[in-house]
Amino acid sequence: MTTVGVIGLGYVGLPLAVAFAEEGCDIIAVDVDARKIEAIEAGDSYIEDVPSEQLRSVAGRIHATTHYARLAKADAVLICVPTPLTRNREPDLGPLLDSTRALAEVLQQDQLVVLESTTYPGTTRERVAPLLEESGLAAGRDFHLAFSPERVDPGRTDYTLRNTPKVVGGLTDACAERAEELYGLVCDTLVRVSSPESAELTKLLENIFRSVNIALVNELTMLTDRMGIDIWEVVEAAATKPYGFMPFAPGPGMGGHCLPVDPFYLSWRAREFDMSTEFIELAGKVNQQMPYHCVAKVQRALNDAGLSVKGARIGVLGVSYKPGVGDIRESPALKIIELLRALGADIRYHDPHVPALTELHLHSLSLEEALADADLALIVTAHPSVDHELVARRARLVVDLRGVTRSFSGAGNVVRL
């Protein structure tokens, strides 16, 4: 029986642990957050993609702990810790380096170590390997080392760990073979690349591609707003071309664990090679500007209705970064709320997936309460469970940042991005 260690039990680590457990593996699940350990032991999932019933079904195979020492018994260890940005938008490898140092203290001969955390090219070879080698074991000789980027899209059900191709890059051919053997238990398709650097850059390219194209359509959105052209109509018309075009929807900005963060890992790394990645950095600037454009749109809508933003009661609908999930990391809704409050607006919100915004001292209201006396309903995240047609009928004024009201007839009170 294979024993798999998983370091970091968040949106990547916990689903991985459950998937390997379902294939009969013993799991040593490690996290520094004791609350996560307690939740796993109780069979209570805190990750939306892992129902508690699914977690409980493999409870006997998952051994959760805050102690790294138990990882000495693992055949393979997967590192799935956060790789955020600092306040200066530079890579923060603190959690990754801390977990690697702790693993080095218990690393065993012939173990496989795989880094799944998104990072810049060179991290596995230049940062992780030397720390692990402080154990006295040599990477690629005494233990195996590889990089395999997570490809998790929270809330998605059509593409899962099982049917999403898994990219693997090993420090040596033998390292890659060991990683392929492991991931073959839970993934149908494996894509082997020549090195950890190629695998690291693959993940960044995937997200930079989205970031740049979202920035392009968002920049056009700001232009078409001035020109009086419907950007949604333009995107839909362009999408009828059967080749050479891929539609991206405009919106209030990017959020989540990847798109607002990952491109900056590559732009930072590029500066070490005396190169400025202008497309990447410009895309970041455009997308960071979108909340300001959206707030200006709200101001104009209120002004056209004879109202001031100061003192206006605004019901924000959806505060997570994407539909159907409760993840608020880097959500543009948070910046929009902050900007509207600074202008004197009275904010309340409704989000079926986010019960509270603690730092903003707000709690989710029912849809009816959020709309009851609102001067304006602001659709920031279009959750499928929210009846937006009802919103368009009941609200005095609606600003739709997601285009979900386009098909509603007679919605003369709706202003769209």
CATH class descriptor name of the largest domain: Alpha Beta
Strand arrangement in the largest pleated sheet: 3-2-1-4-5-6-7-8
SS content category:
alpha/beta
| Low-pLDDT stretches | none
Q: Mean pLDDT across all residues, rounded?
A: 94
CATH topology of the largest domain: Rossmann fold
The outline comes out as globular
- Architecture per CATH nomenclature, i.e. the level-2 architecture of the largest domain: 3-Layer(aba) Sandwich
Q: Compute the number of strand runs.
A: 15
**Any idea how many domains?**
2
Enumerate how many helices there are, as a single number.
13
CATH-defined superfamily of the largest domain: NAD(P)-binding Rossmann-like Domain
End-to-end separation? 55 Å
Alpha-carbon Rg, integer: 23 Å
Q: If you had to describe this structure to a student in words, what would you say it looks like?
A:
The protein has about 425 residues and is of the alpha/beta class. The protein has two domains: about 190 residues, 3-Layer(aba) Sandwich (Rossmann fold), CATH 3.40.50; about 210 residues, Rossmann fold, CATH 3.40.50.720. About 40% of the residues lie in helices and about 15% in strands. The strands form three sheets. It has an eight-stranded mixed β-sheet with strand order 3-2-1-4-5-6-7-8, sandwiched between helices. A hairpin with a 4-residue loop joins β11 and β12. α10 crosses α11. The radius of gyration is 23 Å and the shape is globular. It starts with a strand and ends with a strand.
